Amino acid sequence: KRELKKRPDNRRKSTLYSDLTFYYSGISIDSALAYGNKALALAKVLNDSKFTAQVHSDIGSVYLTQGDLPKAKKSYFTSLGIRTKIKDEKGKASNWSNIGGVYQRMGVLDTAMVYYLKSLRYFESIKNDQNVDFLKNNIGVLYEDMRNFPKAIAMYKEVAAYRKQTGQDIQLAMVYNNLANVFKKTMDFEQSEDYFNQSIVLSQKEGDSLLLANTYNNLAALYNFKKQPARAIPILAKARGILEKVNSEADLALTDFALGIAYAQQKQYPQAKQAYLKSLQTFLKTQANEYVGSIYLNLIPVYANLKMPDSASHYTEMYKTFQNQAIEDQAAQLTAELETKYQTEKKQKQLLQQQAEARQKNILLLLVSIFAVFIALIGYLIYRQQRLKNHQ
Q: Are the C-beta atoms of 40 and 14 separated by less than 8 Å?
């Protein structure tokens, strides 16, 4: 912002706007989009296709952070179209990775895998180990989402080995979290706890407060899963203490959600109700729907045990409405995907038909031309023969 006040030229100004788009994406979506649109306007003035593609990609990342997946996908595909036209292979591979991330968030896992693998093949071909590592981690998450846990574990272990070898302790702590979560899902609680503890040690060593707090949350979730709330509650208190300092509202909501589960397991229903409602307020505000439905469901037995049947009935209806809406949204999304696929296939079919018709016309013209030449040649031979005859 200080640089912008120095009245730089359009080239420098456009770069600054692009940087601000990226940095504001995790702070203020409105500000990020405002800077992104300014960068886009300048990119058009500069008539710089490569930079225009990058700005569209940056804006896509903002929409992805916001959770607006249709707009994120549109921005990434716009960027991909420009990069395809100017033959920017590295830029295309970056777009494939981002588009894979969008489809993964949309739950279209097979399409996500296609884009991730296309991107992975390119970055492996140019030996860009950093992007290969990033993509392998995402593919590991995708295998986890597909519930293909053996492949997820194998991929995460490849990522962990690379990060350990290259001394990336923070990134190593992150993949240890992923491994721990997979082992939790496979009921291998001993390995799960071990990987969480390794992640905690690395987070403390590197002084990454947010990662440390999130790992505490994950470890507490493991204890809740094992029905050990007495072990979960003090760890969640540690997480809350850190998150209040770093002012991470979304992560605090996850802590409260886990506290609600722990208190409910201990039959401390007033505390459970308070924790659930506190987290629900944040999840509704941030549209974190994957947690909203779970809280509605968990509040039903809490209110039942508090002898508050009207509230229990209220949240039963809220849960039913939420589930119906989720089904309708999935159906609408699937319909939109099928419509897009249909329109794309229709356009491709029309294009192929036009190409076939053009080929037929060209073949017809060629045949007519050959026939005309043949007739002319026959005519010339007859004429020549007649002249010879007349001469004789």
A: no
Residues 200-236: pLDDT tens digits? Answer: 999 999 888 889 999 999 999 999 999 999 999 999 9
Query: Would the pTM of this model clear 0.70, i.e. be above it?
Result: no
Q: Average pLDDT, whole number, for the chain?
A: 86
> CB within 8 A of 51, min separation 6: which ones?
14, 18, 43
Q: Which of 182, 213, 176 shows the shortest CA–CA distance to 197?
A: 176
Query: What H or E segment, with its residue span, contains residue 149?
Result: helix 149-165
More confident residue, 329 or 268: 268
DSSP class of residue 247?
T
How far apart (Å, rounded) are the C-alpha atoms in residues 19 and 35? Answer: 9
CA quadruple 226, 227, 230, 234: dihedral, nearest 10? 50
* Other CB atoms within 10 A of residue 237 CB: 13
- The CB density around residue 111, as the number of other CB atoms within 10 Å, is 17
**Which of 245, 250, 224, 246 has the alpha carbon at shortest distance from 235?**
224
**Can you state the angle between helices 289-305 and 269-286, rounded to 10 degrees?**
160
